[in-house]
Specification:
Blueprint (H helix, E strand, L loop, with lengths): L2 H27 L8 E3 L2 E2 L5 H16 L3 E5 L2 E5 L1 H4 L2 E2 L1 H12 L4 H10 L5 E3 L3 E2 L2 H15 L7 E5 L2 E5 L4 E4 L1 H14 L5 E3 L2 E4 L8 H4 L2 E6 L4 E6 L2 E7 L2 E2 L8 E4 L2 E4 L3 E2 L13 E2 L9 E8 L2 E6 L8 E3 L3 E4 H8 L7 E4 L1
Parallel strand pairs: 1-6, 3-11, 13-25, 16-23, 22-24
Antiparallel strand pairs: 1-2, 3-4, 5-7, 8-9, 10-12, 13-14, 14-15, 17-25, 18-21, 19-20, 21-22
Helix pairs in contact: 1-5, 6-7
Length: 346
């Protein structure tokens, strides 16, 4: 080899060695810096050192997790304090991984990548841990707080009126869905901390349109006006004048039903002082001594609706608790009313 060739070789070797030393030195300056393109939990940590990366992840991953979670349903709100969740995240481990990804590859490849502005395509997750028991307790709290049973349509009866109480839907929390939403929110660590509860609607058994079918016949008794009203399909069909219990023998108030029906009823005389010598006797139906004329509609034990021959007592407080009607009226009513018909006395 000639002298010039030797010199050229030496120069080339020196340059290579110098370049290697320079590359090594440059690479050493990058060991505490995260490479371009590295993200952790969606946060870009390019060109950050450990302190900067820790601060960025704390602000964007942990800080949102320190806020309470709110679940709304109509005008109600349920809040889960962050303290109860006991949030934990492996930020340090994720940053360690970010540095490992930044140092992947050979020294020449790393230097070339840095010099040419290349990136490391690394998306590193952060594992967020929290109290599953707290989440489950919260879901149950929300479920218990918003559950509502459906309300069947019904009739609100007064002494001289009927009105329909409308049916109402019930609802039940879709607890599995809420649990999934909470886990997704807490796993991601970001996003709105307010969720809207979703429910399943439960339908009433008796709808408003069906209530008339449930109550084809209804009776109301007004003790202040001595009137019995017959309602058919919730519409007033007929009004009768009746006699009610005298002072001390008041006709009981409340909601009852027709318990029994009888033509020419037998009268079992009560063992009461007012019955005198007849107390305890059984008087056949249709006999002159029997005050229960023509028909009997049992309402409440010994109290019932019956015909009377004392038509002059109608429109007054004259009975021993029963509801007296004119004979023609009680026969008319008897054929219109079935056992089980509601009777409201007020």
């Amino acid at each position: 080899m000639g002298r010039k060739a030797q010199v050229a070789t030496v120069v080339a070797v020196v340059l290579l060695l110098g370049g290697a030393v320079a590359a090594y030195a440059y690479d050493g300056t990058r060991k505490d810096t995260i490479a371009n393109g590295v993200t952790v939990a969606g946060v870009d940590l390019s060109e950050m050192d450990r302190e900067q990366a820790t601060e960025a992840l704390s602000n964007q991953v942990l800080a949102p997790q320190r806020k309470p979670v709110t679940v709304k349903f109509r005008k109600e709100e349920f809040r889960l304090p962050a303290k109860q969740l006991k949030i934990r995240a492996n930020i340090d481990a994720a940053i360690d991984r970010a540095f490992e990804e930044s140092r992947e590859g050979s020294l020449p490849s790393r230097v070339f990548r840095e010099i040419t502005g290349g990136e490391v395509q690394a998306a590193i997750p952060v594992n967020v841990a929290y109290s599953e028991k707290s989440v489950n307790r919260f879901v149950k709290e929300v479920a218990d707080g918003i559950v509502k049973d459906p309300v069947d349509a019904s009739v609100a009866a007064g002494p001289d009126s009927l009105s329909v109480v409308k049916a109402e839907n019930g609802y039940k929390l879709r607890d599995n869905l809420l649990s999934e939403q909470l886990h997704t929110l807490l796993d991601k660590g970001r996003g709105s901390r307010t969720l809207v509860a979703k429910v399943n609607v439960t339908r009433p058994t008796v709808t408003t349109s069906q209530v008339a079918e449930k109550y084809p016949t209804y009776l109301t008794v007004d003790r202040s006006t001595f009137q019995l009203k017959l309602w058919k399909n919730l519409e007033l069909a007929k009004t009768y004048t009746v006699a009610l219990g005298a002072a001390g023998y008041d006709t009981p108030s409340g909601l009852y039903t027709i318990q029994s029906k009888q033509v020419d009823p037998v009268w079992t005389v009560p063992n009461s002082d007012w019955a005198g010598d007849m107390a305890g006797q059984v008087v056949p139906g249709g006999s002159p001594e029997n005050p229960l004329k023509a028909r009997w509609l049992g309402v409440n034990g010994s109290v019932g609706i019956h015909g009377t021959s004392e038509s002059g007592s109608l429109g007054s407080a004259a009975s021993h608790g029963c509801i007296r009607m004119g004979v023609d009226d009680v026969i008319d009513l008897y054929d219109r009313v079935d056992v089980g018909t509601p009777v409201y006395i007020g």
